[in-house]
What we know:
CATH architecture of the domain at 8-49 and 63-85 and 106-126: Sandwich
Largest sheet: 6 strands, antiparallel
Shape: elongated
Number of helices: 2
Structural class: mainly beta
Oligomer: single chain
Order of helices and strands: EEEEEEEHEEH
Low-confidence stretches: none
Amino acid sequence: xxxxxxxxxxxxxxxxxxxxxxxxxxxxxxxxxxxxxxxxxxxxxxxxxxxxxxxxxxxxxxxxxxxxxxxxxxxxxxxxxxxxxxxxxxxxxxxxxxxxxxxxxxxxxxxxxxxxxxxxxxxxxxxxxxxxxxxxxxxxxxxxx
Length: 145
């Protein structure tokens, strides 16, 4: 039986899709790389989007990929749209206005199935969201790829 290696789960990007006073729409891009000789199934990848405002992180959104097949020695980039409609946006916007950018952190756990085995891989990544990204989203421009 071949030795199974952990897939590599990385946050590729967080893009502001749309912004308003009551909602923030984000596209979260997560790459799952499978170094194994056999395909695997990503059973689920629940995650939380947090925004740093002041001294603490506040949850602004959450999502899940659902079930995805990852080919042997292949990788897949998952684009997961998430929308936040809660009060934490106001604190994030205040931080954003005063600093010109805000740190967005994604935390989650990938649950993997392969053959008769299943296991979980936690991940965390922080990326900045800048004034230019928000200006492009407000103007309706397509994010840079």
